[in-house]
Here is the input.
Amino acid sequence: MNKILVINTGSSSLKFSLFDEESLDLLSSGIVERIGEDEPSFTHKVNGKKIQNKVKASNHQEAFQVVIDDLLNKEHGLLSSINEIMGVGHRVVHGADTFSGTVMINQSVIEKMEECIPLAPLHNPPNLMGIGAARKLLPEVPHVGVFDTAFHQTLEPKAYLYGLPYELYEKHRIRRYGFHGTSHKYVSRKLSQILDKPLSQLKIVTCHLGNGSSIAAIDGGKSVDTTMGMTPLEGVMMGTRSGDMDPAIPMFLMDKENMSAQDVDRLLNKKSGVLGLSGVSNDFRDLWEASDKGHRRARLALEAYSYRIKKYVGAYAAAMGGITDIIFTAGIGERDPGVREMVCTGLEFMGVEFDRKTNENKRDQGLISNGNSRVRVWIIPTNEELMIAQETRELIAETVNA
Here is the structure.
């Protein structure tokens, strides 16, 4: 029985998911953490059990070897032979405008990925380390790159260009790229399946809300606009990221607070958002708890976060000339009824008739607007790993049949 392995690498972590190639059922998943640090650990789920062990993983290649050895383990492993792996799908954060779709990874593709590093210096290098480790240990297996930015390559210039001198776009490729594309693509496709309607008939606003949050306008199955920009810092307020703001603020801070460019970058990415505004936490559970106890800034952070999402929902309805569906997904979108209610309250003029009781009690996929709502509102859990596995399978099949 053939399997597809999905890999997502960070600077000190390596996540994996193993799927059945035919059914795309999830068979096992896990993560190697603290790679290159003291006491690396491996946590994995197999046969309904969660197991955690200390491992040797001084680099990503050793971490990947841990994963392979576990999958081949005679007691609980799910592979009888490494030859059962028919493909490896790799999540890559930034593909710039070089990659508009899923690609088969070879040396030429790797070199082009390396050219994208200046646009994602924190994410692409570890992605490439994971690819290098996997290709070295599985040299005969097809490796596929799936890019967070690829889904948004359908944006038109009027949507992706900034109001800067055009030569800066030509020289440095400064433009909106967008992220979370795999998630936005997955939930929009899932909605099409639920409704049994082609995507061509749908105008969807997808709200991927987590510690990193982004909104996308999907018209006829194509992304026409999205909130994140050249980097994941732009857009709605997030857990620790500022989101949209006056671009003169960094210069002001450098002047008045004697901050360096690195200081400002750290402030806007790590110390801002709902964490900075509330002074409490970037965990929304903590914010609601504090808000319920009367913490004014925690409540303000929740309101500001939701207000910015609501503004984008309205803007994207205008951009598409209408809207049929709103989707909430990712950690906050799927599990925070309070945020969903604050976003949807006030959208009645658009035809949203929100069912507060259903929203409050909903814990899984489904409709949270009432039957009279002209705009349907949904919770649809995202599954980026499944989307990567599906795209890996499709590309390998296309390549074999070409």
Q: What stands out?
A: The two ends are 23 Å apart (CA to CA). The chain has a mean pLDDT of 92.
